[in-house]
Amino acid sequence: MQITFDYSNMMAEQVGTAHGITAAELVELQEVTRTIHAQIMARRERGELPFFDLPFDAAIVAEMQQLAAHVRSTFDTLVVLGIGGSALGTTAVYSALGAAQKGSSGATGSSRLIVLDNVDPDGFTARLAQCDPARTCFAVISKSGSTVETNCQFLVARKWVEDAVGSRFREHFIMVTDPETGLLRDLVRREGYRSCSIPPGVGGRFSVFTAVGLLPLACAGVDIAALLKGAADFAPRVCHDELESNPAYLNAALQFLAYNKGLTISVMMPYSDRLRDLGDWFRQLWAESLGKRFGTDGRELYVGPTPVNALGATDQHSQVQLYVEGPFDKVVTFIAVDDFAHEQVIPAYEAFPEASYLAGHTMGELLRTEQQATAAALTKHRRPNCTLHVDRVTPESVGALIYLFEVQTLFAGALFGVDPLDQPGVEEGKLLTYALMGRSGYEERRRDHEASLGRRHARVLKC
Is pTM beyond 0.90 here? Predict the structure, then answer.
């Protein structure tokens, strides 16, 4: 496994001093880096940052593989019921590594994996229609056990299964939740559902290396041992205090400095279909961790880079025009794959001489060239960009990328002066949803909301 971070096009000598980063600015951050690193490692020693140590837990691999073997031998399909961090990491890794297993099933094969991460009734109904309830298992994932969307999904799925198999419906559900507390844990105790625990202190967006991600991925045939090994092997490269040789700290610092130069939009653009959903996972990681009103010192900051997803080469034809000639408010991070698992040689066609220059090249070569060309075009127009080069998309390299981005996000939180592990802005909407759906204990919040509607001057256009 080899990952290379090329940040040449972030620097002022390439894109100018208005938005580019100077060597002096990085030097100035070195002492800050050492201070932050010491604080992070102290918190890790105190057990406050358990996600750091997840890749080194051999017991979780054996546990998940054993449970996955049972699922694969009993069911054709595993459906994940979850939202946000309970779904995005699994989807990202499965898209990268599980393509060969899609659609296969059987005791020695792998279960088909479906991730349902919304409560759109049309979409939910359509996906259930693809499944046989007698041969479908559900992983119900919510650390708190009170996630309204997940509980809604579970209630509908439970009735669907019970209608088909009767009293044996509990055998079709695995609860993945807090080991001690919460509504799902209470349900496990009362009803005897099979369950897995999410370690205390691990938030949803940092949970892909727990049962949240490892169970469904193991069921789908992904090599979870290699996934964790890739993260563990990469850990020493991102767990030291030398800024310019630590890719996680360095990219966080570059993004932070760029943000302070007005580049408040952070574009993640993998040139790989298999890594496309990694951008979705990173979008939540970056947005929910760094978008904060208050700093850790209590001051109002209203900070946070806005993450945007793009896919190369697809979005060269939909977004790059804006990136090259639009406002100077974006920094682009490319992910480039050096060696694709499958290659297509472009054949010659005598009746189409205008395309003869492509003959003998490969599709992978074309995609790599397009990434280089896009980076060059951005640089020419003084738009900062950087590239993470991955030698191949493997369990090890995907595990390393996830670990890199998690550490990068934690370090970025310290630079921005915010807590990257909380999400207070999400809670208000959750609580109001409880109130409007009639959950006991939220009556006053509902009354306050209805009163505010009464004071509002409505402007509604019926078309």
Answer: yes
